[in-house]
Amino acid sequence: MANSKGWFNLEAAGGVIPDTQFFEGDSAFSFLGLTRTQRLYGFFGCLAAGFVLSLLGSIFLFLGSLASFASTGFLIGMFKPVRVIATIVFLGSIGLIFVGAFVIRSDILCIIFVIIEYLAYTWYTLSYIPYARTAVLRVFGM
Predict the structure, then answer these.
(1) What is the DSSP string of the chain?
(2) What is the pLDDT of residues 70-83, one digit of tens each?
(3) Contact (CB, 8 A) for 96 and 113
(4) In the predicted structure, residue 13 carries a pLDDT above the cut 80
(5) Is 96 exposed, middle or buried (CB count within 10 Å of its CB: 0-12, 13-18, 19+)?
(6) Are the CB atoms for 13 and 4 separated by under 8 Å?
(7) Which residues cross the membrane (predicted)?
């Protein structure tokens, strides 16, 4: 590694990179005795791992939502008249999340559609509990 050239060889840079608190002293892992280069590799490695895990979490959250929704279909049925509107709103909001994310590219719309998705799923789930929807409507004064 001594013959390395370029910005990856930060140890040879000497005084080019300032010794600030980002590189010296107050590191959470200072007890490991890592060099600047090793700490930067650790930073970028953890950053990349965090990005990948966040992406996987988003994918699994989507699949988890669909699996949870489909599981209630085994109880009585998703398309009974009492819950057909909530089912359509839920499935439609999932589609609209993809439209907002990939076609319109709007973060705000995606957040709004996710909120609508969870509200529709909650309303859908309440249909399985006798008088639950009526109780919720009374709590909110409707």
Answers:
(1) -TT--STT--STTGGGS---TTTSS--TTGGG---HHHHHHHHHHHHHHHHHHHHHHHHHHHHHHHHHHHHHTTTT-TTSTTTHHHHHHHHHHHHHHHIIIIII--HHHHHHHHHHHHHHHHHHHHTTSTTHHHHHHHHTT-
(2) 776 666 677 888 88
(3) yes
(4) no
(5) buried
(6) no
(7) 40-64, 84-104, 111-132
Per-residue pLDDT of 51-70, as tens digits, reads: 888 888 877 877 787 787 77
Give the number of residues written for the chain: 142
pLDDT in tens, 112-142: 998 999 899 889 888 888 899 999 999 998 7
Q: Quick one: tokens of 63? A: 């699949």
Per DSSP, the residues of 111-139 read HHHHHHHHHHHHHHHHTTSTTHHHHHHHH
